[in-house]
Write a structure and sequence with these properties.
The structure is a homotetramer. By secondary structure, the first copy, chain A, is α/β, with parallel strands linked by helices. Chain A has eleven helices and nine strands. In chain A, strands 1, 2, 3, 4, 5, 6, 7, 8 and 9 form a nine-stranded mixed β-sheet that branches. The interface of A and B includes residues 187 and 267 of A.
Chain lengths: ~300, ~300, ~300, ~300
Amino acid sequence: MFEIRTDLAVETSEDKGKKEELSGIRVEKMQEGDDIVITRVCIETQKAAKSAGKPKGNYITIEAEQMVEEDTGYHREISKVFSQQLKGFLPKDYSNSKVLIVGLGNREVTPDALGPKVIDHLFITRHLIKEYGKYLLEFDKCCSVSGIVPGVMAQTGMETVEIMKGVVEETKPDIVVVIDALAARSIKRLNRTIQITDTGIVPGSGVGNYRNAINREHLGIPVIAIGIPTVVDAATIVADSFSSLMEQLNENGQEDVVEQQDFQEMIRDLISPKLNTMYVTSKDIDEAVNRLSYTISEGLNMTFVPEESHIF
Amino acid sequence: MFEIRTDLAVETSEDKGKKEELSGIRVEKMQEGDDIVITRVCIETQKAAKSAGKPKGNYITIEAEQMVEEDTGYHREISKVFSQQLKGFLPKDYSNSKVLIVGLGNREVTPDALGPKVIDHLFITRHLIKEYGKYLLEFDKCCSVSGIVPGVMAQTGMETVEIMKGVVEETKPDIVVVIDALAARSIKRLNRTIQITDTGIVPGSGVGNYRNAINREHLGIPVIAIGIPTVVDAATIVADSFSSLMEQLNENGQEDVVEQQDFQEMIRDLISPKLNTMYVTSKDIDEAVNRLSYTISEGLNMTFVPEESHIF
Amino acid sequence: MFEIRTDLAVETSEDKGKKEELSGIRVEKMQEGDDIVITRVCIETQKAAKSAGKPKGNYITIEAEQMVEEDTGYHREISKVFSQQLKGFLPKDYSNSKVLIVGLGNREVTPDALGPKVIDHLFITRHLIKEYGKYLLEFDKCCSVSGIVPGVMAQTGMETVEIMKGVVEETKPDIVVVIDALAARSIKRLNRTIQITDTGIVPGSGVGNYRNAINREHLGIPVIAIGIPTVVDAATIVADSFSSLMEQLNENGQEDVVEQQDFQEMIRDLISPKLNTMYVTSKDIDEAVNRLSYTISEGLNMTFVPEESHIF
Amino acid sequence: MFEIRTDLAVETSEDKGKKEELSGIRVEKMQEGDDIVITRVCIETQKAAKSAGKPKGNYITIEAEQMVEEDTGYHREISKVFSQQLKGFLPKDYSNSKVLIVGLGNREVTPDALGPKVIDHLFITRHLIKEYGKYLLEFDKCCSVSGIVPGVMAQTGMETVEIMKGVVEETKPDIVVVIDALAARSIKRLNRTIQITDTGIVPGSGVGNYRNAINREHLGIPVIAIGIPTVVDAATIVADSFSSLMEQLNENGQEDVVEQQDFQEMIRDLISPKLNTMYVTSKDIDEAVNRLSYTISEGLNMTFVPEESHIF
């Protein structure tokens, strides 16, 4: 049908799932407290990956209607749930690992600034551990955390994966964690969903170009990607609205109105090529990205530099 | 029909104009050089204002396909055309006037940062003239320019017009110029159109709330509003696409498919309430707003602090 | 002697106090917990004001060695002490007042960004109370808080007091609170001291120009000024070092080395005029200003929008 | 004597030069136009390098009193002179080279933001050339330019040279150009001096730690470092003032006042350890850094992406 873009595995599965259970994709939903829903999507086969348009691997989505609210206590709650889920992607004995955390995206564009802002609030410990050693400090359960904001290709002229390969080669972390703003299909998920996956990420996309993927294959070490949808593709929102319209017409018994085929061509023509360079975001995106960057960075700090290790 | 939002008078007139010449609205198009189109819209009667959803007054639109390109020379060209058109809104003998320039919008949200960024690049002269006097400096043809970035209501708790009234009362400018990012109806106008009007502006809107208008009526002195569309309302883009679809169905002879009335209700339902808090913008909005803020501020500097007056 | 600049009343009194108790200046010191020292300075007479170079009125200084440390719990402790002391400057029944909070300074200059950053983190309630009314929300003990970042004269061409007069006239607050970065005399106080005073403030100074003071006399309502020293004047640091040197030479019995008079002239010559446009600040000023802006804004939020009033 | 810190070779040579011509250091001064002075310092021997506290190699300084002024034409003049001098450090046939430009420093600290801001204004071409090829575009005389802002160690936990090694290894540039804000000894050089050198740079220092130098030895390709002094060390300004005082006392025939030895110890005591974490900068540093970042980036664009190659 229309090319619906989404970076969320949970949306891919929903879509396809309507008609039949998709073979090769396992979906599990859990409730956490009153209003947090955790969904586990496992894409198990290459064939399923192709059909879903997402790499084989594990995806966890944490959804919470109130995620974007101003309540500090609630944010800490989400940070804890996020930290718990993140630990599921880490080796059991990760507590002394070397972790490189990468903030993807463009700081100058509000909905794309999530990654860089997360890095701003991290406890960075690698240089301290290198200088003072672990034995001097109470760093027993503290990871060596480094962080980088590589910038986007229009600013650097380099693919992010090129920069990452070099930095990984030189500083030898055990694990890479990348943070990025994502595109959702549905506006109801904007700023309300955290996705964690072990499949890595393709910066600035969701479509196609796997040559530039930041993943285990390219970096040689585990890559955990964390994302929050902050935009919807403009073409997606229009195409999706059209689909709903058509469904409703069909339900109303007017299904023969337009041939399915013709209808789609008509729509493809209506969606101007300019729409492909456009995205939809919310009017309060500045506050949402600020708050969510704290939620994520608190969760990362809890995970990699737990409070009992702080003496500095 | 659907509530189509646009801050551009030129789009209002286009829309209505399709079927009949609108009485009380005068539209004039001119070519300027190869690819700059200037449109003058004059809303002459209260009735026309109501029908157009825009206050009575004069609107000039400068459109240029290349407005957003990186070419410095071309930008200066646009700045000159803009300055010429702006002078048409000023009194003949404005060259010693006291001008207060106001950058509306939220600096933290990329497409809304136009106003604040324009203020960043202005020659501010009021304090210099007050301290050194005009006779000492070569300020003969130089306006007394002051500037302010009042912030948005969520940040200040105050209506912008309250702040402006107070500052105007206290500093007694002759003219107020306000700069704001606008919403267009059509994405093809984004970042490519400058509107100048003597009707003032309603911050954060385009709809309804004239109580908060920053205009001559409220400030007691002429208010010239300058805007560039950097967003399209998300609901507008969807509704507009639906209209096009319906028109096409009608042309194809399927006009009786759905009753016009039903169709509209269906669509109103499809456009979720959440869509009303969403907007569409372009992926390169950071670069566009940066460049356009220079284009506008250069034009304002040319107009109010011409180069022959610089000695500082 | 040399013109030593400081915005801190506590430093004025220390200096003069060395030789004699200054008549007309009352100084009181208190310990708060382990490492917080609170000093109350009251300048009681016009004569004392002249001799101290500070307006008549009350000054409270909260000093804490650890103020700049990264510990979140500790920061909250300071915010509480600050809120308590601030309440001493407010009327007993202030809990429903209209408060305008003003962030002075230049956001683009790191040590001067304190005021603007404090405004960023405030709970702004005025527009909510105006729209929804107090009875609907649980705003019983909640002030109507508005905020503004007026900018500095080089950016606006206007004296800050002009802008403030206008905004006060138009929005009718009961109290104005201004936040500003200050200059200390001693680098040991940088980023470690909060001063609260009922005398208002002269932006960008500490010397002389009382015409532009933001105070009760000019605004017609109480003005409480809150400041943290983030810079030391470069000339002050050099002159102060010279004084120490001279004292040491005197103690060593070399007091006749140079005539006091000659020495001072010599030093005045050595301190180049360029030094007067220079200031000293710390290398980690970005982190210090970030953290302290949270400390202050949390204290203001506790004071004016206490948690029991939050339902939004 | 006192440890005077300066990153400018021209200041090292001045200082030592007072008493005798330093063997192994060649200094040449030229006038360029009315008020631009170019000084060439060549440190020729390892012994001279040790005595000067600067690595062996070539240093060019461009000094202009008006460098910081607002005049656009004048800035372009400086950019041209800078570009000419820079070309002297490049191979003759550099016009198709691959150049990686690195913006050192901390964007959040105004005087340290020079490097990051220069990168903001560069023409980045590497990704365009990779995608479209040179033959398609008029890139004949255009370098492949990439850029990066690596951040400072407190933000990343990594030495800048580690990041650079990795990126160079991966993207294989022919030349690295690093931009950094420097520390001068004399405030009269602040914001008025550009230094170009082929010796590379040690981030955040000027003293000692050559293990972290970004230079040819560590990166394996030529490294050209460009810097502008925007700060003076606080201890340096005090120590330097003391030296001047002592000289003046000596000239006045009071040379036996204090034993040279004692005097220095006294001063070392007076310069508090806290002073070592402090720097001096100018009050208008935000405007100065903004303007100078354009001067440098324009010069780099002229050099690596000359206008005749622009078609984009």
